[in-house]
Amino acid sequence: MNALAQHRRLENRISLRFSLRKFSAGLASFESRSLTSVLQPRR
To answer: 24-40, pLDDT tens digit by residue?
Structure first.
């Protein structure tokens, strides 16, 4: 029972880290896109 709980905790930590990495990547791409749109002159 304890091993199962540990395994589930490890899975939660891995999924959390993966979702956090995906969120940070999306935020970085959004920031770079907004930065390029701001730096480029409006046509």
So the answer is: 999 999 999 988 888 77
